[in-house]
Amino acid sequence: MPSLPTTTDLALVREAVAYLRRTSLPIEPRRQWPAGGMPQYRLTGRIAAELRAQPGKPLYIWGDAGWGSLVRQGKYRDRHFADELVEACAVLVREWNPQPAPAWVTCIPSLRHPDLVPDLARRLAAALNLPFDEVLAKTDNRPEQKTMANSTQQARNIDGSLALSAQALRGGPVLLVDDMVDSRWTLTVAAWLLRSHGSGEVLPLALALAGHDE
Question: What CATH number does the domain located at 27-209 have?
Answer without folding.
Answer: 3.40.50.2020
